[in-house]
Amino acid sequence: MKFTAAQIAGILQGEVIGNPNAEVYRLSKIEEGTEGSLTFLANPKYLNFIYSTQATVTIVSNTFEPEQEITTTLIKVDDAYESFSKLLEYYNQVKLMKSGIEEPSVISENVSYGTDLYLGSFSYVGKNVIIGNNVKIYPNSFIGDNVTIGDNCVFFAGVRIYSETVIGNNCTVHSGAIIGSDGFGFAPQEDGTFKKIPQIGNVIIENDVEIGSCTTIDRATLGSTFIRNGVKLDNHIQVAHNVEIGENTVIAAQTGIAGSTKIGKHGMIGGQVGFAGHLVIGDNVKIQAQSGIGKNVGDDEVVQGSPAFNFGDFAKSYVHFKNLPKIVSDLEEIKKNNNI
């Protein structure tokens, strides 16, 4: 897609200084700008690059006044960083403006869908599925029976949504994610084998949720696994059966949450954190990366370690841990000097 400087200025309500017909078709960093690219200057650290960049168009704040000759066309706006972010959002919306049902794809009986559906080729939609308006389902995706999907959702290529799952409005699910697969439930038998326990619950995902690539969310054994409003999940996260993740909690990659653990609102959880099952994690909790959570965590706590404990205590303990060889040596010297 090509845009002129004048078109971009119109979107951003900015002023063109230079050639209004200059065309751009890609984005770049200011120091890596090439002909046909659009960039921006917001950080004073990169000011020198405005005079050497080969980018065709550069977004700058109204306060910028060049002190040397420049070749790039400027678009002046109130806030360059905010405007560039707005432009990225607009570009993403244009890029995702697909509609129509591609062939081959399968839509089973009793399916209803709203306006502007995009269903990519080699996708399958099961029986009794309800799909809202402006939903984009990219190729090679699977939507199981009795699934409900709200408005303005995007499912990128290769997403798998198992039966009975409920998904709200404005949700994004990235490639390779699997939602609603069986929980890990097996009963040990007397002969040493394990018998599978049927997993007959579902997954409920509320509004404004984003789920990263290859993340898996298991259906409940009974009842529902809940992902509440505004939750953001990174790539490669495992959410087990009957887990509940509270509103606006963000979780980084490779975290694993065992069954029936409840995580509160507004949490921030680092990468590679492991949760034992049946725990209660409070609101506004911060958990540092690679922590192991084996007991309940109260509201507003910040924890680290495996097993995790108070972050301040962990930091103090770690100082001593690093000095442990010297501490042991000093103790041995004291014992020797005192004939202990």
Write structural notes for this entry.
The protein is of the alpha/beta class and 340 residues long. It folds into 2 domains: 3-95, Udp-n-acetylmuramoylalanyl-d-glutamate--2,6- Diaminopimelate Ligase, Chain: A, domain 1 (3-Layer(aba) Sandwich), CATH 3.40.1390.10; 100-314, Hexapeptide repeat proteins (UDP N-Acetylglucosamine Acyltransferase, domain 1, 3 Solenoid). 15% of the residues lie in helices and 30% in strands. The strands form 6 sheets. Strands 8-11-14-17-20-25-28-31-34-37-39-40 form a 12-stranded mixed β-sheet. The protein starts with a strand and ends with a helix. The mean pLDDT is 94. Keywords: Acyltransferase, Lipid A biosynthesis, Lipid biosynthesis, Lipid metabolism, Repeat, Transferase. GO terms for molecular function: UDP-3-O-[(3R)-3-hydroxyacyl]-glucosamine N-acyltransferase activity. Homotrimer.
